[in-house]
Design brief:
Strand content of chain B: over 45%
Largest sheet of chain B: 7 strands, mixed
Structural class of chain B: mainly beta
Order of helices and strands of chain B: EEEEEEEEEEE
Distance between the termini of chain B: 37 Å
Radius of gyration of chain B: 13 Å
Mean pLDDT of chain B: 95
Structural class of chain A: mainly beta
Helix content of chain A: under 10%
Number of helices of chain A: 0
Oligomer: heterodimer
Low-confidence stretches of chain A: none
Mean pLDDT of chain A: 94
Number of strands of chain A: 11
Distance between the termini of chain A: 41 Å
Chain lengths: ~110, ~110
């Protein structure tokens, strides 16, 4: 089967950098997506890694290493509005989602 | 503005009643999805559809039914057979070749008592 593991909660300071890790066990997949979800809201797509390496989109970057079964989302210059839950999801045929990481940002 | 609408935002039902959740999109996407989200958990796939008049079961389809008579619409019925229907229901859509990038509606929070 497939499973993904993420830390349940991460705390960081405004203006700092934070990394949210995602480890997975799956027999094969197309790529790894990241989504952001504010409390009570809908998930919004952030990034996708089909290949190993780093993908950068503004303040957000995402990394994938298939050999290590590992990926991460890097958020730079943290702002209070980045307080949300972040989900990794592997694309097997459809998306298989992790349980999410709640990011708490302190002033 | 293109997007996905779900209605209503909050829905209350008595146990034993069927209830239908609406999902409409004007993004011209072929693929549509229904997910269930429980507190502190990720999204679990209920049903998905790649094309009109065709749909497939996801991981937790028992107690749910769907239809896809129009490209824009993908309603979900929560039947009385669903043991724990209280949850946050999210509808999404995508192009078939970019299933990794899904667009979500605002969700319907269903409470069954």
């Amino acid at each position: 089967g497939q499973s993904l593991e993420q830390p349940s909660e991460v705390t960081a300071v405004e203006g700092a950098i934070v990394q949210i890790n995602c480890t997975y066990q799956t027999s094969g997949f197309y790529g790894l997506s990241w989504y952001q979800q504010h409390d009570g809201g809908a998930p919004t797509f952030l990034s996708y890694n089909a290949l190993d390496g780093l993908e950068e989109t503004g303040r957000f970057s995402s990394f994938l290493s298939r050999s290590d079964s590992y990926g991460y989302l890097l958020l730079q210059e943290l702002q209070m509005k980045d307080s949300a839950s972040y989900f990794c999801a592997v694309q097997v045929y459809q998306l298989i989602w992790g349980a999410g990481t709640k990011l708490i940002i302190k002033p | 503005d293109g997007g996905i609408t779900q209605s209503p935002k909050y829905l209350f039902r008595k146990e034993g009643q069927n209830v239908t959740l609406s999902c409409e999109q004007n993004l011209n996407h072929d693929a549509m999805y229904w997910y269930r989200q429980d507190p502190g958990q990720g999204l679990r796939l209920i049903y998905y559809s790649q094309i009109v008049n065709d749909f497939q079961k996801g991981d937790i389809a028992e107690g749910y039914s769907v239809s896809r008579e129009k490209k824009e619409s993908f309603p979900l019925t929560v039947t009385s057979a669903q043991k724990n229907p209280t949850a946050f229901y999210l509808c999404a859509s995508s192009t078939p070749d970019r299933a990794y990038e899904q667009y979500f509606g605002p969700g319907t929070r269903l409470t069954v008592t």
